[in-house]
Amino acid sequence: MVTVRRSTVIDAPIAAVWDVLRDFNGHDRWHPAVARSNLEGNQRTDQVGCVRNFVLESGERLRERLLELSDKQHSFRYAIVESEVPLINYVAEVALKPVTDGDRTFWSWSSRFETPKGRERELAQLVAEGVYEAGFEAIRAEVEIAQSPWRGPAGSTSAGGAAIEGTAMVIDRHGGPEQLHAARVLASPPGPGEVRLRQSAIGVNFIDVYCRSGYFDLLTPPGAPGMEAAGVVVDVGPGVRHLSPGQRVAYACPPVGAYATVRTMPATLVMPLPDWLDDVTAAAGLLKGMTAEFLLHRVHKLARGETVLIYAPAGGVGRLLCQWAKHLGATVIGATSSEEKARIARAAGADHVILPGEASLEEQVRALTRGRGADVIFDAVGRDSFGHSLRALANCGHLVSYGQASGDIGTWDIGGLASNSATLSRPNFGHYTDTPEKVAAITERLFDAMARRIVTVEVGRRYALSEAAAAHRALEGRETTASLVLLPDDAERGSS
Amino acid sequence: MALVYASSVIAAPAARVWETIRDFNGLPNWHPAIAESRIEAGAPADQVGCIRAFRLRDGGFIRERLLALSDYDFSCTYAILESPMGVENYVATLKLTPITDGDRTFAEWSAEFDCPPEREAELVALIGTGVFQGGFDALKSRFGQ
Predict the structure, then answer these.
(1) What is the number of structural domains in chain B?
(2) Architecture of domain A162-287+460-487
(3) ipTM beyond cut 0.90
(4) What class, spelled out in words, does domain A304-426 have in CATH?
(5) What is the CA radius of gyration of chain A?
(6) Which residues of A lie closer than 8 Å to B, measured between beta carbons?
């Protein structure tokens, strides 16, 4: 018998927390692991004995019966009656208690169950972290909105000057593109070390989709997604020396929130734009270009003569990697899915393009390298490609796994890396861009490469900021190869 | 029947806070309202049924019997035998629960008692704020919050 118990304190009154938790059929609205929930028959959600059908984000299904519900104790108990996850005789209890000291809520979530032999620890961890702790954080995001700047009182500004009003595309909860909606926002006067911007172009990246859906925990709703934009400095706070009002600037980094017409943010993250670089191109290419820079110059210092395999060579980052790797003297192999994308990859400098065929990816790479394999592989596909990448590496090769477009990579035994003395890197953009010095070094080399047309940013379709949902749909539908850009709606531009 | 309930969060593991709370004769060590305490008849302080006799800083004298003590649940239940407050059938429980998120402690202190209806509001405030929350504040300043 395994016992799991987790507890936390939510900074909201018990009535607010219970209001969300009490709905036995509502967990798909807040729990990140639950994709869909349906009640069986004509039962009501607070009818003891009702059975909910879950489809998890992982695709697995389970059925759970409500055993007990108490509005007096703020608690409910439930049991798994059928599950594709092997949790046997699973009975769980959710219970809330008021923290009178501060009007907060103590929340405990516990269960007892059996598992197949040898899987106790793994499944206990799944329940404790994947279900209970993930649930805590989701509810925290749901009910602690009182602290959110988006719900703050109008005019809650720091000393000196008034807030500037603008529009943002925000989400109130994680979900599909339809969650994006316009909201009035206030950009407060910049405090020490901050800058206030009026934005003119906003880049759309796949990471924005992950923020919106909740796959990445970079955005706690309510709030706006978006990692990069260009615009003009309105004013700067005390201590900011590298920027001044009226200057053209851009940024590409967390914290998220770029889908807005005005924004106040840390100045260290914001860089001046060279005159020759227009706002739209900067917004379209900065994040992808900075990614290509640190992948090719910092994560793996690409050397002349090396063979590099690049997945998705027609995509935003992949195209820049092809161009830059070719310029650095590497032999470039692109791995893509269609002849049309293969043409884009070849135009970007790929010496060879491999397509899905009778031979596996690793066999095709070995055929192109006289059996040697690739010295370095840039893989943002993830689950579907990781094993192929390991097998396509040359001895002492370097696999750089920098994304998971096809899904989580899962768990691998690192013992297998010895079969070709492989090195594995799993870089995080944030760690390469967390100081102004690092950002300046990366952008200096990137701007130089752009100015010399070693790399070229291809700007794709432009959308009004209010059409952000349409841009996300296009991106998720894989309809696009060039970078999408959002432009503030006409009514917003030039207003103050 | 009047009910009092107070709860708080203390920034220390429950097992550590329990070491302090568990000593039925230890109120003067942590509760600011208690001046001195002794266990009657030389009994050990963790013997269920023992009686503590203690004096408040304001001079009041109280006797309480230990009804239940659980090292498993981190809880202690006791009844007032004699006090200047004018309560009857007073039974209180102080209970600690681990908060796994941050390895902190959720502390609950509750009581039920009988009293004349016109005194209920005053007594609930005295016990809830003065005794229970006063004790939590002292624990928070000792262990952190």
Answers:
(1) 1
(2) Alpha-Beta Complex (3.90)
(3) no
(4) alpha beta
(5) 25
(6) 5-9, 97-102, 104, 106, 108, 133, 136
